[in-house]
Amino acid sequence: MRISGLLTAATYALAGTLAQADDMKMSVTTSFHNSGLAEVLLPEIQKDLGLEVQLLVVGTGQALRLGEAGDVDAILVHSKAAEEEFVAAGYGTHRTEIMYNDFVIVGPSEDPADISGAPNAIEALTRIAKAQTPFVSRGDDSGTDKMEKALWIGAGYAQEALDVSWYNEAGAGMGAALNTASGMNAYILSDRASWLNFGNKRELGLLFQGDPVLFNQYAYLPVNPQKHGHVKSTFSAKLEAWLVSDRAKALIDGYMLEGEQLFVFNAEQ
């Protein structure tokens, strides 16, 4: 009886070890990580699926390049055009929208460029340029950086026109770029979630929001196993099924900071 009991215990211990061994890698944008939502979702994913999701936190451009190289099993980013190119090139099997929030422009509370009264985001950037007040750019080919550059082009400022003293490229993630803006008391484009979760606001305030062009969609892209046979497509499919479930919806919609909902679940179920 004692030997049988020991064997049974060993069997359960081994099963537990094997269950804990399920893992996959996912590259995610820094704005998702800086929002704090990852700390909410990952423990629940592990609890529900027995799946440990290891995050590689980079800008959207680098996250997609990791997928192209087969260094991750899936990607969660926020730059629709780049994502569609990734899938069209065969690196991703498909693109599934999961949730959204929006971009905002923050800056010195006294608002020297008077962007809080701007009618739209492009006019807000135009006012910053005319006032030549310090502006911090991510400068890292992230989804936020791509949005910012598109807005500058809309305002009539190509990249070469931004080679000026008041425009500062941090070449860093959202949290680090916000810290740079805080230290310089400068304007910056941020996703709302990262801004609300940012703890070093100092003299910065949220000055412009609400333009529909600032809509910020996050999508999930499994890496194509036909391109990289080693990717864990079974696990990425399990994770996707969880991300579009009612369980994920409740957690995503329920994530609040300072009384504000940071993301809105919009996956098709």
Outline the secondary-structure elements.
Elements: H1 2-20, E1 23-29, H2 30-34, H3 37-49, E2 52-58, H4 60-68, E3 74-77, H5 80-88, E4 96-108, H6 121-131, E5 135-137, H7 143-154, E6 167-169, H8 174-184, E7 187-191, H9 192-197, E8 204-208, E9 215-222, H10 233-243, H11 246-253, E10 256-257, E11 260-261, E12 264-265
Parallel strand pairs: 1-2, 1-3, 5-6, 5-7
Antiparallel strand pairs: 3-9, 4-7, 4-8, 4-9, 4-12, 10-11
Number of strands: 12
Kindly report the CATH topology of the largest domain. D-Maltodextrin-Binding Protein, domain 2
**CATH top level label of the largest domain:** Alpha Beta
Strand content bin:
15-25%
Helix content: 40-55%
Which second-level CATH architecture of the largest domain applies?
3-Layer(aba) Sandwich
Q: Catalogue the unreliable spans.
A: 1-19
State the order of secondary-structure elements, H for helix, E for strand: HEHHEHEHEHEHEHEHEEHHEEE
Backbone shape: globular
Total of DSSP H or I helical runs spanning 4+ residues: 11
Number of spatially distinct domains: 2
Q: How far from one another are the termini?
A: 50 Å
Task: Look at the structure and give the mean pLDDT.
Answer: 90
Q: How would you characterize the largest beta sheet?
A: 10 strands, mixed
